[in-house]
Amino acid sequence: MTQPQLNEFIPPPECPVFEPSWEEFADPFAYINKIRPIAEKTGICKIRPPPEWQPPFACDVDRLKFTPRIQRLNELEAQTRVKLNFLDQIAKFWELQGCTLKIPHVERKILDLYQLNKLVNEEGGFDAVCRERRWTKISVRLGFAPGKAIGSHLRAHYERILYPYNLFQTGDNQPRATLTNDTKDKEYTPHDLPQRQSVQPQETCSIARRAKRMRSERGCVKTEPGEVCENRPNLRRRMGTYVGKQEPVRMAITEVKQEPIKHPTDYEETVLDKRPPSSKVDQYMCLVCGKGTAEDRLLLCDGCDDSYHIFCLIPPLHDVPKGDWRCPKCLAQECGKPPVAFGFEQASRSYTLQAFGDMADSFKSDYFNMPVHMVPTELVEKEFWRLVSTIEEDVTVEYGADIASKEFGSGFPLSNSHFEVSPEDEHYLSSGWNLNNMPVLDSSVLTHITADICGMKLPWLYVGMCFSSFCWHIEDHWSYSINYLHWGEPKTWYGAPGYAAEHLESVMKNLAPELFESQPDLLHQLVTIMNPNTLMNNGVPIYRTNQCAGEFVITFPRAYHSGFNQGFNFAEAVNFCTMDWMPIGRECVTHYRQLSRYCVFSHDEMVCNMAYKADTMDVELASAVQKEMAVMVQEEQRLREKINKMGVVQSLQVDYEVLPDEERQCCKCRTTCYLSGITCACSPGKMVCLYHPRDLCSCPHSNLTLHYKFTLDELYPMMASVKLRAESYKDWLCSVQDILESKGNKKRGLEELHSLVELAETRAFPQISLLDRLRKVVSEADKVAVMAQQLLNGKRQTRYRSGGGKSQNQNGLTVEELRSFVRQFDSLPCNIRQAPLLKDLLTRVDDFQQRSQCLLSDESPSPLELQELLDVSLGLDVELPQLALLRERLEQARWLEAVQQASSRPESLCLDTMRRLIDQGVGLAPHSSVERAMARLQELLTVSEQWEERVLSLMEARPYHSMATLDAALQEVENIPAYLPNCLQLKDVITKAKKWLHEAEALQLGGRIPVLDSLTELLLRAESIPVRLDPLSRLEALVSDVQSWKESAAKTFLLKNSPFSLLEVLCPRCDVGAVHQKSRPKKAKEATQISKKSSTKLESLCDVERVLSESKDSASAMATLAEVRQREMEILLALRTSNESKLVPAENCCALSVCVCQKAPSGAMMQCELCRDVFHCGCVTTTADLGYGQAWLCPLCHRSRKPPLDKVLPLLASLQRIRVRLPEGDALRFLIERTVRWQHRVQQACTEGVLEKVSKMGRVGPGISSHLTQEINGSYFHTEHQSVPLEGLGPELEELMVEGFLLQVTLPETEQLYKYLLSKLAPLLSHSDPCENNAEQDQQSQRGSPHHNRNGVSSVKKETGNGQSKRTKRRKDSSDSQHSEKAKKCRKKKSKKSKERSEETKRTCSPTHPVSDPAASDSEEDYSLCAAPWCREPEGDEVNWVQCDGSCNQWFHQICVGLSAERAELEDYICISCTQPDYDGGE
Questions:
Q1: Pairing between β-strand 704-708 and β-strand 650-653 as defined by DSSP bridges
Q2: Of 895, 899, 910, which Cα lies nearest the Cα of 978?
Q3: 959 preceded by cis ω (within 30°)?
Q4: Burial level of 1048, CB count in 10 A (0-12/13-18/19+)?
Q5: Residue bearing the bigger pLDDT, 69 or 970
Q6: pLDDT tens string 666-682
Q7: pLDDT digit string (tens) for 1231-1255?
Q8: Rg of the Cα trace of the chain?
Q9: Torsion-angle region of residue 1433: left (phi > 0), alpha (psi -120 to 50) or beta?
Q10: Which helix (H) or strand (E) holds 1272?
Q11: DSSP 1226-1242
Q12: How many CB atoms lie within 10 A of CB 172?
């Protein structure tokens, strides 16, 4: 046998732990039967009650006083006890030799003498090991490292200590034996197990350990065979002492010993017979040499008083031993005695629960040096198995085990106990888990045992402390056991399943054969444990658990279990048996018979007691009892026939119940007899069972008497009654089985199934699985029939469509239920007439599921097909598990379709659509296609959002980005298949920018002059284009220059607070008379209508401005303005006539409305020289110093400042430099041209003698007065200012004068013409002679004539201007002669001019006399002429000129074109004819 492993303990696997619900916990045996298939595989299991199940602790603590057992831990373990027994024998051998055994140390550890002796014996003995030199091998097998010469030490120790003992054991002659000890050896204190436990049992009858439990009246304290009544005081060790190997304590053996009284054995009688006759002399004679000499060397044996010389002994002694000495005979007698059975001692004192708890807690806290509640259970477990496996440390604990609850009260409440139970705890009195109730429940077999068996039917109490243990054992009769830990520290359990019981027994016998040789039923004594790791290493399945307070541990039949307590606790245990145990119990009795072990109760008696109650017995129990009865009666019949054949003829019926157990036990196998037994008159009080009739006595068989309880004829009716009860149940079982297994045509109706169920309920048949199956079949058959009918009637379900098209079912029938209906048509014991229709429904359902499977397996099913399939499901009154998935896939398919449609139309796939689709996709069930589409959509959304932000930042950037940057971004964006507003805006911006640039470039292509409105419109459009436009700054500067020009022109022309715009002032009037439209006479209105017919498109300034803006060139603009001028002249002349005519007195005239106030004329009035309307002096502003010859214009006709021409010409020149066309510019140009043409007409009028006609006309009507004093409708008024009367004017002169007033330029010709006409037609009256006055007036008029100095010149020019016309052929004749004259005149000397004036004054007064001076003209021919049509004819010492740098190379006065000398030097000048090629056509 190898050395036991002292390695660290490895915990076995955990056993099952069950936590029943309240419903399961209600019936203990039903729940145990439920968990049995699982739990019996591990032998033990733990049950945790529901947390609310907390029974009160009802034990009488004050009365509880017990005497615990003493447990020395290293004596409990089988292999350790073998070693201790061997060491005790060695120690005793040397003690009887007068020496003390000391165990040597090798390599700093105690030498295992037992293992050394075993190994040497296995190797062939001391001589063989020495001869073959195997000591090194033995040292290695003992665990020592090789190569250290340990073998020689081992040989020396063996030869010194063990070799003499082995020689003594073999009977060989001993050599001289002296026990020399090393100073390092540890003195061995014998455990003296045989002497401590060689006390007789307390009771004279030798019965089983638990046999006395049936005699509860004699005492309920459990006793062990061989329990110690009196102990040797020198061997008594105090409980809880811990002997460590670091501090060895020498315990000397007391020399005075008290041997137990014992009867002489056969061996002793033989030895005594061989002694010589005792005499006084013989007592002092050496039995070896037969001499009495050397009395001082004679030794007297302390055992038998024989005398021996010390030198006659083998081996001889040197000195007389000081202690006890035994002779060789006594030594052989002492060492050869058989060992006494091992058992526990009882402690010398009793404890109360409080005292034991204090002691237990103190021991644990001192041992582990920490509070008891802080010691881990794993540490206690490992320390326990270390202590039981060592021989060096002795730890002793006490265990209050097998305390009868009947005496001190159970831990559970009882109805008749002193413990008062509160109302809320009363249910614990009847609870099946109350261990006082469990053995006697109806489902428990033990309830049929009449006697109260302590520990089996009555619970036992257990008070434990740390390390106190219960050894490997199985319950009596291989019954169940249940243990409840009321409170305290945990209890650690180890268990082996019932099927491994024999294996565990064989392993323990093989590992510790010495113990079983002397004690074959050792495992039934509950005194031996073995390390679970050792058992597991030998193939025994072991399981463990920690039982905490409030938990149950159940052990199953023949399941070995052991364990120990972690600390102070209180537990309660009891046995119980269920009907499944009964065959196991009978097998156990057979096993006991083979072992000659006591039975606690008679198994046959229990079966018969159950048979007495056959009528009321549970039928399931009756079935089990019937089997037991059949086996029992059959065996009894066989045995009685055997006895009868042996010749036993005497018989006697006895009542075994009244006999004590010890009187009806088989003296051979110790089985308790009940049905029968054999007695003989020669052996009163002795009985044998029918299995051992020959073992009673040697008398003839005819002398034997058969004692029986029942005759066979009595047994058969008992068995029949049980059989009847069981067979009624069996018939029912057979019928049910036939029905449940019926097939095809053997099917039965539902009524028969219902009748069987009713029979089971009325006869209280057990609730077995078959009945459950029957009920289930009936229930399913009913369900199938009812549901099938309802399905076919259309009332099975109530369906309605929800908003999403989903069908919701009430009491829905699943497909599996429908399939089970159809499947059960063949298995159920009834025919369902609705079967064909249901099968058709199932077929349609299967078709639906197949189509569903196909669609669901498709990666991208069609939403239409899915919807069609869902519509099909509405006609199937079945809960279809695919519906939810189909709806999910429908949602997915619709979503995917929406995504596909959105993706196929990128122009409508906006960010909100993508976000909405993603939000919808998030709510969908996961699917690969959805996830891929989501990924693509999310990627597109991310890219789109990034580009939207980037494009927005590009467009919002300041300063603006260039076209190239935005165009590059647009190129990348165009590849994104989505509707991106910012990107589209960018595209629109780029398109607009390109268009803008194109238009900006087109404006100046081919030297064209852009129109201001086009520029302004371009600038306005540029403001909305967030692009850096290179031409923009230039155009803005150009427009800015135009605005500056317009402001300058406005300052030049407009009056302060003028209601007219610059264009209104510069353009010909198109709204003449609009203010007085209401009061205008009918004739004037008709004239206006006529003028409107002639030109309907230019009725307002807006129309004129629009036409000017839309004109393509200056020529068309000039034509438009000429048309407006024509209309202006027509309307104004008509207005003058109308206004003049309404002032003619008429009796029947309506009331007049004149002036701005539109009232009748009265008082002092002013008459406008242009429109000829009259105004009240109080309504208009008049100039106080307005003299004769000064024309007065009304506020409507006086429209501007009328600047002189020299201030107007620079404006036109500066506009030419800006090179922009605008309506005001065209109007200004037309004004200047109009002015020039008017000047030409005035000059022509002078030349042609038109003015002379006026003077003649004026003289025709001298009576006409220019001062009006009239009465109209009784109202008098008069004009304060002299006006030119219209009667004397011809149409040509009137038109000429009117146009002169219309010109918004101040010209000397206008004033001179007006004065001339006024003087001719309305001369100023004075007191002098009229002829003188007329002559003076003519002279003044002649001087005031606008052309009095030019008449002759014009005539000369007209006559001799042919040469000049060649040089100025581009001008008209009148214009050429006029400007030629001006050019010549401006180059004459001042003196010459004065001379000509004086000469002309002397000539005729007629301003029309043509006077020519061709010499003067010819003398100035070489001088250049100013090419400006509006030449101002400058005079002075120096006149600056400038030549056009364009294509014409003409010369101009600098002042005429608005240039300064410095600017002319620095810049090139291009005339209007070169910049505007259409200018000539305009002229």
A1: parallel
A2: 910
A3: yes
A4: middle
A5: 69
A6: 988 889 898 899 999 88
A7: 888 898 888 888 888 888 777 777 6
A8: 75
A9: left
A10: strand 1269-1272
A11: HHHHHHHHHHHHHHHHH
A12: 9
